[in-house]
Amino acid sequence: MINMTMDTTSFNSSTTPKEPQPNTPEDPAPPAPLITFLPPQGQLNYLGHNHPLNQPDNIPKTFLDAMSVREKVYVQEQSIALENEFDDDDHRSCHWVLYTSAFHSPQTSTPPIPIGTIRLVPFPHPPHPLNGGIYLNNTLTNPSPQPNSPTTTYHHNENEPYIKLGRLAVIKEHRNKGLARHLVRAAIDWMQTHPATFNPSPPSPSPTTLEMDVTAGGGELPKWRGLFCIHAQEDAVTVWEKYGFRVDEKMGRWWEEGIPHVGMWLRVKVGREREDDVQSFGG
Q: InterPro entries given for it (predicted)?
């Protein structure tokens, strides 16, 4: 179980571990990870050329914490340009941040430190990256990528709305502890329990719109039906496969900020079907 809170500057560290029961063969279970959730904020005046600690005062703390993790992983470790780490999708995305406070004794005076993050980008999305394309700051830079790059893939029919996960990052000293799994699970669980969050509302009925509907035979508004996509670094494919994602070979391979990427997809059940949806997540 994940202890998830909304964006806040206070962290719950008051839980006292239970005393071991007599004749109990197992140690008490470790505390659930503390993950803070930040819903889409609209226009953020985040300064992409500045470090997270050098930002306007009105930027939510959770977002600054997410960016501090992303800077350590993507900028410092993978040499991605600082100004390219923040992008337009950050304004409209949901963000989750995992903190160390869940792994300290309640008696510790150490403040919680952000150590992991993930973001969820709602639809609509631009066309899929081109096979062989080289992208810098989400812009195609090579004029002649491989031909016949598909808009319809093995897992996506071009029209179905999908949710894109990304910016999954855990700082180096806390990897290989299963923490990324908690972040991925938190994002997927949230969408499964809020499947209509990003679906557009139908327009108010009026003679004009009703006539247009009759003339056009009626149209269906975009509706999310459980499809997730990621642009995975090739080195991380096996990690995402543990969470149920599968490579879409038809999407080919492309480069983002000098790093080779592939497309991966996962479909989950939503609504009434969710009760039967059993996902297996690795460490």
A: Acyl_CoA_acyltransferase, GNAT_dom
Whether the Cβ atoms of residue 68 and residue 52 lie closer than 8 Å to each other = yes
Q: Binning pLDDT at 50, 70 and 90, where does residue 203 land? A: low
Q: Which residue has the tokens 């803070």?
A: 36
Evaluate whether residue 115 is within a structural domain.
yes
Range of the domain at 63: 1-6+29-119
Mean pLDDT, residues 177-205 taken together = 91
Residue 153 in any domain: the answer is no
* HSE toward the beta carbon, residue 269, CA cutoff 13 A: 9
Instruction: Give me the residue label for tokens 């508004």.
Output: 221
Report residue 135 CA to chain centroid gap.
20
Helix, strand, coil percentages, rounded to 5, for the chain: 25, 20, 55
Q: How deeply is 261 buried, as exposed, middle or buried, from its count of CB atoms within 10 A (0-12, 13-18, 19+)?
A: buried
Buried b (16+ CB within 10 A) or exposed e, 38-67: bbbbeebebeeeeebeebeeebbebbbbbb
Question: For the chain, how many structural domains are there in total?
Answer: 1
pLDDT, tens digit, 9 for 90 and up, residues 214-271: 345 456 788 999 999 999 999 999 999 999 999 999 999 999 999 999 999 999 999 7
